[in-house]
Structures are given as C-alpha cells and as structure tokens.
C-alpha cells in the first residue's frame, strides 16, 4: 500500500536521519558534520542560496537545536532543526513569490 505524499515525505525524513546518524559515533544522533552532510546532500539549492547570505547557518542551527549541549543532535532535537528549516524555506518561498509578483507588475 502506497502512502500519501506527506506520509512518504515523513518516512523519507526519518530514513534520512538514521542514514546520516549511522555514519559515525552514536548511531542514534547526528554530529555537526553529519548534520552538515545531511543538509548539503538533501537540500543543496536552499543551503547554497542561504549560505551566501548566512555562511554560519548550519552551525548556528546545530547550536540552537542542541538543547542538552552534548554536541549531538538526537531525533527530538532534529525535529527542531526541521521546524527551523521548514520555516526558513517558507520565508524564502514567500520572498521569491513577492519578487516575482513585483517584477511582473513593475513594482521595483
């Protein structure tokens, strides 16, 4: 049975987390390097465009998510990362839509 697109996306996120967490150290957590690899491999265009404006985005995101300050991101902390990422992606989307609308209507 095939899931809905959102169910499939959620499964892929969980699978992706575990795939990258298993690369080094504790297989249930992400190091900063594992998080960087996960984001650069899976959302490269967003990371590239964001990185030009905010080169420390990933390290700051890691620091904010690491609530217990153990230099690892557990799955619950990863949910914080996803929330921030979705929020920032949403803001990026709106900026693009606004720019497109303004260009179409000669508002610049």
Automatic annotation (TrEMBL):
Family matches, as SMART domains: EFh (SM00054), S_100 (SM01394)
Family matches, as PANTHER family: PROTEIN S100-A15A, S100 CALCIUM-BINDING PROTEIN
Keyword Metal-binding: yes
Residue ranges constituting the EF-hand domain according to the UniProt record: 60-88
Keywords, ordered alphabetically: Calcium, Metal-binding
Species the sequence originates in: Panthera pardus
Molecular-function GO terms, alphabetical: calcium ion binding; calcium-dependent protein binding; chemoattractant activity; transition metal ion binding
Protein name: Protein S100-A15A
Protein's UniProt keywords contain Metal-binding: yes
